[in-house]
Amino acid sequence: MTTKRIQTIEKIFKKTTSSKQIHEGVLFVENTDGDFSYSKGYGGKDMDSPLLMASITKLFTTTCIIALLEKGQLSLEDRLSKYFDKALLSSIHVYGGKEYSFDLTLSDLLFQVSGLPDVFEEGKDSVKSRAIEEDYYTTFSEQVVMVKKLKPHFAPRTKRKAYYADINFDMLGEIIEKTTNTTLAEAYKKYIFEPLALESTYLPEHENDFIPNIYYKDKSIYRPKVIRSSRASGGCITTARELMIFMKAFFGGELFNKVIFEKLTASNKLQASMGPIYYGSGYMRIPLDGLITLFMGKGELMGHSGSTGSFAFFYPVKDIFMVGDLNQMGNAALPIRLSMKLAMMTK
Q1: Backbone angles phi, psi at 101, to 5 degrees
Q2: CATH fold for the domain made of 3-345
């Protein structure tokens, strides 16, 4: 990449961090071979500063599911009733007067096509609104109870529909534990951290595990219990440096059979509140050739963002990986906008 292109990336990041909403951040951009590499910190953050992955954690959960699929230890067509007892599943999905709870499959969860509601964003006592005010811990069973109090959005596998809901991945996390007969943290360690020699990436389990503060607008809040409750849907901690290593491995076929992964091609557009995002087999897909870019882009971004400002995307058209964090819970669109601008302008 030329000096001019580096200057363009710097200009985009500087403009993003000049916003009053951003108090700290980090950006790391690199191509597959690493012969182009650019990083920039802001507000005291750098490539080795701990950052909350939030929903990027879903890529770790996806990795474990595909690795177990490759080993033949589970099938995406498995019904949830194989892994959860009847009492827990009963009434979790009742739509149009019909119960679908026992028809749900692993595939429905991975592709976000179960139709289940999202307790993080929905309801008068949503996880997000409550977390802004206080720190509290919820068990998986309690999360399921919360889901049952909300209405599903459509019948499972309704054509061209997807609905982003954390419970889909929280359930996949439980399934990973049941299949491997170990903790989710140990599964992440076996299938991700150890193969990639990640030393600063972990799933917090104990009170003394370090968890970074999160900004909500101008307020810095500390929510360790909320983060430890998020687990498979959003609980991991990493650094920009190690997140880059993971992203290259995830899309490069180092962690599981790439052929299996590439066969999982279906994707559906998420709910309107998620903007231009589609969801594939455990990851976000953001097309750059549509109205939102005035049809000026090509291809798509693949990866994930988090509700706290984290982002990790691969742009195959230009062989660019971009990871980092803007640490702002008050505007989940910020990392998406930044990633799209970087993809559109890095040539």
Answers
A1: -50, -40
A2: Beta-lactamase (3.40.710)
Q: Residue 290: its pLDDT value, please? A: 67
User: What pLDDT does residue 289 have?
Assistant: 83
Burial, 173: exposed, middle or buried (Cβ in 10 Å; 0-12, 13-18, 19+)? Answer: buried
DSSP, res 46 = -
What are the sequence ranges of the domains in the chain? Answer: 3-345
SS3 string, 224-291, reads HHHHHHHHHHHCCEECHHHHHHHHHHHHHCCCCCHHHHHHCCCCEECCHHHCCCEECCCCEEEECCCH
Share of the chain above pLDDT 70, in %: 97
Q: Is pLDDT above 60 for 1?
A: no
Burial of 126 (0-12, 13-18, 19+ CB in 10 A): middle
**Looking at residue 3, what is its pLDDT?**
82
Q: How far apart are CA 140 and CA 128, in angstroms?
A: 16
Q: What angle do CA 269, 284, 219 make, to 5 degrees?
A: 105
Tokens 């650094």 locate to 239
Q: Which of 232, 210, 243, 220 is nearest to 335 (CA)?
A: 243
Give the least confident one: 5-9, 135-139, 185-189, 197-201: 5-9
Contacts of 99 (CB under 8 A, 6+ apart): 90, 91, 93
- Percent of all residues in the chain with a pLDDT value above 90, rounded to a whole number: 92
